[in-house]
């Protein structure tokens, strides 16, 4: 039988490497047909643009063009034919062509007339060489708009690394988060409109949301055209901010129509490409909707499929790269999407599955896709040759005749292997299993493939979560990751929580909070520093923070900017919240920075060089949590204007009213410095929203308990800088909040003090004037204990009420003004009278009160801060101004020479003191808003004066210059230019301006009279004016028109607007302004001036003479005990939850939400109806197919009957056709994850992999049903392969060879070699032994050492996994095991410590590599005492028809954790080879072992009763 096989010659391989490195196991994902090339001495680009910000999709600059023109020819090459050999076939144009496909005139002269003879047959390896490429640059499709793409012509041997560098550095493409390889039919095919719409929508959605690259064949036909149209539709319907989808077409250069227009040795920028489908013939046009093209050249013309090897290598290379985005580092995943397709598509799917690439098959697209989809849920044994033949005839129809028997067998084998890897196969069925979008199917395929990879359980789930976060698909995370299959620890989610915060992915933050992440454990000192270090650089807060760091650098003379610390953040926050707050993050006294020690999983996360993994793995015992983690995160989100994040975090806050008001304050302050109008509007809108939230929560609190609600207003919040809710609202100017009924009730309560608010003002004034009325019951008190008539505290309670203090001060102030006016007008003598001395004394008391307000610092802000706060009030500024003017007047008054000037200055001071009365009227609901209107109008007048001054000065100067000649007196110049012009507006027109009413007696001819203006220009003879009267009249008319009509009406309109604006919010403004007056008199001494000096004297004696500590005077704040504060805040949180629930209910009841819900239900109903129609149609089609089959069988039976009757006999029974049952058999389909064990094949599978390891040999396809030797398989003609022996091979590595085949004694012990099988006597045919398990598709020895059985020994060394306390860990009530595994150099997988046995040896060579020699005898004893768990054939990809592996697995289990032998073995491990890694691995379903080793471990675990 060996002679009939096809011999394959391969290059010698290093057998020692095969035996030592690959192991006796095999890789889960075998190698591809094409190896990944490395690029030696790659010329690096010296351009700077590749290092700068990405500028993809824009026209390149001159420097970029020059860079590409130099870099691409140096690093990228093309192929061309250098030897012309005439082809037997003519070209399409009827001209002579070469074997390469190009015409004779398209060859160089050296190729047509070569210098030397190079053979008669054209060989691409000798007759094609590489030269620098001549086609690259930008491509513009003529008549297709302004779209410009990129293209390059590359050799088929170009290393993928070079192409990847071109795309990412020179084409400025961002590294993708996902690679979508779309393959399928290259010719136009028909798809159902609904399926086409679903495919386009889903593909674009997954590409746009994940930042994926889409790779296709690039031509304007078939599936490539479908992808291009999908991208086109997205581009037309989206805006610029949504980004551009990267669609890369990898096509064959030799099949591109009109490719000559792309050729330009120095690059085309752009090249004009014409799509001419009518004249393309057998060639193809490029698709105009692709953004980038890689045109693969192998030196031939008209040959399709050239690009497939390079495309495979490039996709594999990209999938091995690591992408770091927004804190998440992932290897770029790849998925293959299949539509329709033919034989080439099947090979693509098979290669993808072999390489471990998940595939999504779109059912209903036709041909190959439908064939695989129809059998995908069947177990492999049921996928027979006849079934595949039937499916091919159904879906390929006319082209079915091209399928030979060997081709059908090959398809059956490949489809079986594809379906066998169910974890990598996803079938998209429209409307089935809840699948409605292709994007969900693509992402589910990625996660399913990741879930079944041989990684440890936690790392596998973590990898899936990283993919979902990188894609920003929280829906996939909810449905596929956070399931009952895996229990997540909150600490495991901390790194991803930080990444989601930095990346501004609020949905993931919300999901992690739902999964149990506790912010008090997540937010630590280091976490906050990390978050602030990775803020959005464009935010206002980041700029202010950098300014603080630069100032510290200048103060400290550092060489570089210091790292962000929380006390830096606190400085900026205090600027935003207000100087009345204390530092939120005080500067630490020591320089040691706090570390955190939260143990988290091994995750590779990186943002801007800061490792999140290192952030969460610190030394134990040094973790510092912040005081209020929710507050810290809320501030971080708000200062970056991240609305969604802030909303989620605010719902977790405890002191929620203060938090909302603080957010409103910070946003309003940031908006003042924001230059972008849209961002400023967003900030102000968000600030208003937080004010509404504070109002909503406080309303709930006030409805439930008024006293508690009012206590919330004034309780001191340590979390927000020891301030109160009321103070935050006032500083943020939240008028709506302050005007809330509950807050106004509280202010009214404070205003009346201990008096009842039901008292009338007349009653209060009467008691003020005659206090004995207090004991008549005329005044009522809020406290019952003050009601008795004999209570002496009633006097104190009455006169300390703010309302009484206010009215006493009004009386006092009016008395002061009356006395001041009397002295100024009646009794202002050179020597002050006693009344004037009374005024000075009175004013001194007022000054003392102002000093008390200035120096009163209960919060410890300091003098400078208190001075700034004092002067921030307008009325205080007015007081200071009046006092200073009074002081200046008093100084002048005591000097006899300036006595009159002193009286004038004092009169001015009197005016300001009178203006101060307006502050008193703010308590009035009627007059208060009017005073605000006056203040606003004063601002309008101030700006109006600028406009008026332009007209007044311009007219005045022109008038003065025309009428008066050389006026020298400055005062009269001012009168003529400004004063007279101003009075003209009000109708006082100068009589001399028109010359009619000119009177020479009213002016001075020479300007010598100081009391008369200078006369206008006139005739000296008759004293008649000579100035142009018509001009002055015209100027006067124009002046009056613009000033009296236009500007004055403009001022009136401005006043009217201000009045209406204030009038609309009169109530809110008055209530807001009312607080300042109430707070002032709440903390004011009760005695009015000048008696207030007694209170000041008492304060002075206590503070400076008796040295008593300063006592807090009356303030609208209250410090609560910790227990009381905790209870109050807990109650507030409960009220907040009620508010949020009510808010959600209101949204559900809104008309817009109801309409949206109805629309969604109608859509769901329509989809259900469509799915039901599709399902019914599918059942009908299935019944029709079986009906046709029965008709065919019936016709065949009738033919047999006719033939039998015609031959006058009844015929033989063998010729009777088999009739199918009349009823369609029901075939149960199983999901990919729930296929019963009985459905798995009973034959070896790995031994039939088409790609033989470490060689170029390809097996003959052997379907499951043709494996047994007993089954006839006439076309079975496998190749023959035996690895050649190395020349330097030692005697120990001598292998069997065909030359000594006749001297081998099979089925016996042949010298030191045991050639007996564990399965008994095997068949030897034509001198070669036959594999007892059946056909493998390859004859010969392969890379195994011996023909026949090759024996191996695998010790399965286990122990129980134990907790810290020594107890055995359990999972699902079963004990958990740990197994000893090893990892050899150049191997990706772990393996059991064993392998092939050398002739005459009892221990495998690989086992000896990890054990010291002195322990070998002891380990042999352990094996002898162990339990045999398996003895027999090993399904291995190295097996052939004539050589196979047989293994003996022995379980060596250590029951006791203190076992002496186990400790000795641990001490002797890894004694010889330091490159070998040995460890104890937890036994789990996803333990990273070779597949056949995993099966041996499962058998050992079953014997021990452990979890596996």
Characterise the protein shown here:
- The protein has 49 helices and 31 strands.
- The protein is an alpha/beta fold and 1508 residues long.
- Helix 6 links the parallel strand 6 (178-184) and strand 7.
- Helix 10 (367-375) runs antiparallel to helix 11, helix 33 packs antiparallel against helix 37 (899-915) and helix 39 (927-963) runs antiparallel to helix 41.
- The longest helix is centred in the C-terminal third of the chain and has 56 residues, at 1151-1206.
Brief overview:
The protein has 1508 residues and is an alpha/beta fold. The strands form eight sheets. Strands 9-4-5-10-8-7-6-13-14-15 form a ten-stranded mixed β-sheet, sandwiched between helices. Strands 24, 25, 26, 27, 28, 29, 30 and 31 form an eight-stranded mixed β-sheet that branches. A three-stranded parallel β-sheet has the order 1-18-23, with no helix packed on it. Helix 6 links the parallel strand 6 and strand 7.
Topology, pairings included?
Layout: E1 6-7, H1 15-21, H2 62-75, E2 77-81, H3 109-112, H4 124-127, E3 128-132, E4 136-141, E5 148-155, H5 160-170, E6 178-184, H6 193-210, E7 212-216, H7 222-237, E8 246-252, E9 268-273, E10 292-297, H8 307-319, E11 322-325, E12 328-331, E13 334-339, H9 343-354, E14 359-362, H10 367-375, H11 385-395, H12 405-420, E15 425-428, H13 438-451, H14 457-471, H15 474-481, H16 494-502, H17 506-514, H18 519-522, H19 525-533, H20 540-556, H21 566-577, E16 606-607, E17 610-611, H22 612-615, H23 629-638, H24 643-650, H25 656-673, H26 677-704, H27 706-714, H28 725-731, H29 735-738, H30 741-752, H31 761-769, H32 793-799, H33 802-825, H34 834-855, H35 863-871, H36 874-893, H37 899-915, H38 917-920, H39 927-963, H40 970-985, H41 1029-1064, H42 1066-1082, H43 1092-1105, H44 1122-1149, H45 1151-1206, E18 1279-1282, E19 1309-1310, E20 1313-1314, E21 1324-1325, E22 1328-1329, E23 1339-1342, E24 1348-1360, E25 1370-1371, E26 1374-1383, E27 1395-1396, H46 1405-1410, H47 1416-1425, E28 1427-1434, E29 1443-1454, H48 1460-1468, E30 1477-1482, H49 1491-1504, E31 1506-1507
Parallel strand pairs: 1-18, 4-9, 5-10, 6-7, 6-13, 7-8, 8-10, 13-14, 14-15, 18-23, 24-29, 26-31
Antiparallel strand pairs: 2-3, 4-5, 11-12, 16-17, 19-20, 21-22, 24-26, 24-27, 25-26, 26-30, 28-29
Helix pairs in contact: 5-8, 6-7, 6-13, 9-12, 10-11, 13-14, 14-15, 20-21, 23-24, 23-25, 25-26, 25-28, 26-27, 26-44, 30-42, 33-34, 33-37, 36-37, 39-40, 39-41
């Amino acid at each position: 039988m060996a002679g009939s096989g096809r011999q394959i010659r391969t290059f010698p391989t290093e057998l020692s490497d095969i035996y030592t490195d690959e192991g006796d196991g095999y890789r889960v994902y075998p190698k591809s047909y094409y190896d990944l090339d490395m690029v030696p001495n790659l010329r690096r680009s010296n351009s700077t643009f590749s290092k700068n910000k990405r500028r993809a999709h824009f026209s390149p600059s001159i420097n970029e063009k020059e860079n590409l023109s130099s870099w691409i020819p140096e690093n990228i090459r093309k192929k061309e034919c250098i030897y012309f050999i005439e082809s037997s076939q003519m070209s399409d144009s009827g001209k002579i062509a070469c074997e390469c496909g190009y015409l004779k005139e398209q060859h160089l002269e050296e190729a047509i007339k070569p210098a030397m003879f190079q053979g008669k047959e054209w060989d691409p390896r000798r007759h094609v060489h590489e030269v620098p490429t001549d086609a690259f640059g930008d491509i513009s499709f003529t008549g297709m708009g302004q779209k410009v793409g990129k293209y390059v012509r590359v050799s088929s041997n170009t290393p993928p690394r070079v192409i990847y560098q071109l795309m990412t550095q020179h084409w400025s493409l961002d590294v993708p988060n996902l690679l979508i390889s779309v393959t399928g039919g290259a010719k136009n095919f028909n798809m159902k409109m609904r399926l086409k719409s679903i495919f386009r929508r889903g593909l674009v959605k997954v590409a746009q949301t994940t930042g994926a690259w889409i790779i296709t064949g690039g031509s304007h036909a078939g599936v490539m055209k479908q992808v291009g149209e999908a991208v086109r539709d997205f581009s037309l319907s989206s805006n610029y901010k949504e980004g551009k989808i990267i669609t890369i077409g990898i096509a064959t250069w030799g099949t591109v129509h009109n490719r000559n227009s792309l050729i330009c040795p120095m690059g085309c920028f752009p090249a004009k490409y014409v799509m001419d489908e009518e004249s393309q013939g057998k060639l193809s046009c490029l698709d105009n909707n692709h953004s980038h093209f890689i045109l693969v050249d192998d030196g031939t013309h008209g040959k399709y499929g050239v690009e497939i090897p390079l495309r495979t290598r490039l996709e594999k290379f990209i999938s091995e790269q690591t992408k770091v985005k927004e804190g998440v580092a992932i290897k770029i995943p790849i998925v293959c999407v299949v539509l329709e397709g033919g034989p080439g598509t099947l090979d693509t799917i098979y290669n993808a599955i072999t390489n471990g690439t998940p595939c999504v098959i779109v059912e209903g697209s036709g041909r190959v896709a439908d064939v695989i989809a129809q059998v995908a849920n069947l177990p492999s044994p049921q996928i027979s040759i006849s079934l595949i033949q039937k499916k091919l005839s159904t879906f390929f129809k006319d082209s079915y005749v091209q399928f030979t028997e060997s081709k059908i067998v090959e398809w059956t084998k490949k489809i079986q292997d594809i379906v066998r890897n169910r974890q990598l196969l996803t079938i998209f069925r429209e409307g089935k299993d809840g699948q409605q979008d292709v994007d969900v199917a693509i992402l589910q395929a990625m996660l399913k493939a990741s879930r079944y990879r041989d990684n440890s359980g936690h790392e596998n789930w973590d990898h899936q979560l990283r993919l979902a976060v990188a894609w920003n698909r929280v829906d996939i995370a909810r449905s596929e990751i956070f399931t009952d299959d895996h229990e997540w620890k909150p600490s495991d989610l901390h790194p991803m929580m930080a990444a989601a915060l930095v990346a501004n992915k609020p949905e993931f933050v919300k999901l992690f909070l739902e999964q149990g992440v506790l912010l008090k454990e997540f937010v630590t000192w280091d976490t906050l520093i990390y978050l602030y270090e990775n803020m959005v650089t464009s935010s206002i807060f980041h700029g202010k923070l950098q300014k603080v760091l630069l100032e510290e650098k200048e103060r400290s003379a550092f060489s570089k900017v210091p790292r962000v610390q929380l006390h830096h953040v606190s400085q900026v926050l205090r600027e935003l919240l207000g100087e009345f707050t204390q530092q939120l993050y005080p500067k630490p006294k020591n320089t040691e920075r706090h570390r955190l020690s939260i143990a988290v999983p091994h995750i590779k996360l990186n943002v801007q060089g800061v490792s999140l993994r290192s952030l969460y793995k610190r030394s134990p015992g040094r973790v510092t949590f912040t005081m209020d983690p929710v507050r810290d995160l809320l501030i971080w989100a708000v200062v970056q204007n991240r609305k969604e994040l802030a909303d989620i975090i605010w719902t977790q806050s405890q002191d929620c009213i203060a938090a909302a008001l603080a957010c409103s304050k910070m946003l309003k302050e940031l908006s003042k410095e924001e230059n972008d109008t849209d961002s400023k509007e967003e900030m102000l809108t968000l600030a208003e929203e937080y004010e509404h939230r504070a109002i909503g929560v406080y309303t709930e609190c006030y409805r439930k308990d008024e006293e508690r609600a009012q206590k919330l207003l004034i309780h001191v919040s340590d979390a927000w800088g020891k301030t109160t809710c009321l103070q935050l609202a006032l500083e943020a100017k939240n008028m709506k909040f302050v005007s809330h009924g509950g807050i106004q009730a509280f202010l009214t309560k404070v205003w009346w003090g201990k008096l009842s608010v039901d008292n009338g003002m007349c009653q209060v004034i009467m008691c003020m004037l005659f206090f004995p009325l207090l004991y008549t019951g005329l005044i009522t008190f809020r406290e019952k204990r003050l009601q008795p008539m004999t209570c002496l505290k009633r006097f104190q309670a009455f006169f300390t009420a703010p309302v009484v203090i206010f009215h006493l001060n009004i009386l006092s102030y009016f008395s002061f003004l009356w006395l001041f006016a009397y002295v100024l007008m009646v009794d202002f003598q050179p020597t002050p009278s006693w009344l004037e001395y009374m005024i000075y004394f009175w004013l001194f008391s007022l000054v003392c009160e102002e000093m008390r307000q200035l120096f009163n610092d209960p919060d410890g802000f300091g003098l400078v801060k208190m001075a700034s706060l004092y002067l921030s009030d307008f009325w205080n500024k007015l007081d200071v101004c009046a006092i200073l003017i009074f002081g200046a007047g008093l100084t002048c008054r005591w000097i006899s020479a300036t006595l009159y000037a002193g009286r004038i200055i004092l009169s001015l001071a009197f005016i300001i003191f009178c203006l101060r009365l307006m502050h008193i009227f703010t308590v009035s609901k009627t007059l208060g808003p009017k005073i605000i209107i006056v203040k606003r109008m004063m601002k309008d007048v101030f700006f109006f004066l600028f406009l008026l001054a332009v007209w007044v000065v311009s007219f005045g100067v022109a008038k003065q210059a025309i009428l008066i000649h050389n006026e020298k007196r400055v005062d009269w110049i001012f009168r003529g230019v400004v004063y007279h012009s101003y009075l003209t507006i009000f109708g006082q027109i100068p009589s001399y301006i028109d010359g009619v009413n000119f009177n020479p007696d009213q002016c001075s001819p020479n300007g010598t009279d100081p009391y008369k203006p200078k006369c206008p220009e006139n005739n000296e003879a008759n004293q008649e004016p000579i100035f142009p009267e018509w001009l002055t009249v015209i100027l006067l008319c124009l002046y009056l028109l613009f000033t009296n009509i236009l500007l004055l009406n403009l001022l009136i309109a401005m006043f009217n607007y201000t009045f209406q604006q204030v009038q609309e919010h009169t109530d809110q403004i008055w209530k807001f302004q009312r607080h300042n007056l109430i707070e002032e008199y709440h903390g004011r001494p009760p005695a009015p001036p000048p008696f207030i000096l007694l209170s000041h004297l008492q304060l002075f004696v206590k503070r400076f003479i008796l040295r008593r500590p300063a006592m807090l005077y009356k303030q609208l704040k209250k410090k609560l005990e910790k227990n009381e504060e905790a209870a109050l805040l807990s109650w507030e949180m409960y009220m907040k939850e009620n508010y949020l629930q009510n808010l959600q209910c209101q949204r559900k009841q809104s008309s817009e939400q109801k309409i949206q819900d109805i629309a969604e239900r109608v859509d769901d109903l329509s989809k259900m109806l469509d799915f039901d129609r599709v399902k019914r149609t599918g059942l009908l089609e299935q019944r029709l197919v079986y009906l046709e089959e029965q008709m065919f069988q019936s016709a065949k039976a009738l033919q047999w009957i006719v033939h039998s009757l015609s031959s006058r006999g009844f015929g033989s029974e063998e010729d009777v056709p088999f009739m199918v049952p009349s009823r369609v058999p029901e075939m149960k389909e199983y999901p990919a994850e729930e296929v019963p064990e009985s459905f798995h094949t009973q034959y070896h599978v790995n031994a039939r992999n088409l790609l033989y390891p470490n060689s170029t040999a390809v097996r003959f396809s052997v379907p499951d049903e043709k494996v047994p030797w007993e089954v006839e398989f006439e076309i079975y003609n496998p190749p023959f392969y035996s690895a050649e022996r190395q020349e330097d091979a030692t005697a120990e590595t001598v292998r069997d060879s065909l030359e000594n085949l006749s001297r081998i004694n099979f089925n016996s012990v042949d010298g030191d070699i045991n050639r007996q099988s564990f399965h008994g006597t095997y068949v030897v045919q034509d001198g070669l032994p036959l594999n007892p398990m059946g056909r493998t598709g390859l004859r010969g020895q392969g890379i195994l050492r011996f023909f026949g059985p090759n024996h191996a020994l695998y010790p399965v060394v286990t122990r129980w996994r134990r907790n810290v306390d020594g107890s055995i860990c359990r999972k699902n009530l079963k004990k958990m095991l740990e197994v000893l595994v090893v990892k050899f150099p150049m191997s990706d997988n772990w393996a059991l410590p064993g392998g092939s046995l050398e002739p005459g040896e009892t221990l495998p060579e690989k086992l000896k590599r990890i054990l010291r020699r002195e322990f070998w005898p002891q380990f042999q004893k352990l094996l002898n005492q162990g339990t045999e768990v398996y003895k027999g054939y090993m399904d291995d990809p190295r097996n052939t028809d004539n050589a196979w592996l047989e293994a003996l697995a022995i379980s060596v289990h250590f029951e006791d954790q203190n076992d002496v032998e186990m400790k000795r073995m641990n001490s002797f491990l890894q004694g010889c080879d330091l490159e070998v890694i040995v460890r104890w691995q937890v036994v789990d379903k996803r333990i990273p072992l070779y597949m056949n080793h995993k099966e041996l471990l499962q058998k050992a675990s079953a014997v021990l009763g452990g979890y596996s």
